[in-house]
Amino acid sequence: MDYSFVKSLHGNFGILAFLLLIVLFLRTLYDFINKNEKLGTVRKISKYTTLTVHIQLILGVVFLIMNSFILENLSGKIAGSSVSYIEHMASNLIAIVLITIFNAKLKRADKITPSLLVILVVSMVLLSRVVPLIMNILK
Length: 139
Ligand code: HEM
Prior knowledge:
Number of domains: 1
Bound molecules: protoporphyrin IX containing FE
């Protein structure tokens, strides 16, 4: 079965998701430092970041279902990297859950709290393992 289309969609959407997360982190930090109470901009960025990572999750699962090789070789490495399939999926799944929690909490917040920042930093650390994969795509 030809799954290269889903794979490249997941790869390129991954670049977008990672860039959005960096923008979201910078804006959250800015609003935190300035004790900003107008959170319209950060909420908008957060909404699009959450939407993108959810699409990314769906694409990842579709790709997984189409490519039974991965399900049979979960500890195998993603081509050209030292990241194993299982590590990639588990860490990104947790990161996506954290981003979703951040987005939900942000909707009800009237300012950026340290705990909101911590949630975002942890999700960035978890997602940082996609950097070598992104570098491979951009090569
Ligand atoms: C925001 C979260 C995620 C990002 C940024 C991301 C990003 C990436 C990138 C950049 C690649 C390399 C693609 C390529 O070499 O063309 C990749 C591969 C892969 N991703 Fe994700 N991913 C995420 C979440 C997930 C999730 C949740 C799953 C599964 C449930 C998943 C399943 C896979 C699989 C199976 C591959 C291997 C492709 C191969 O065989 O080379 N990803 N991902």
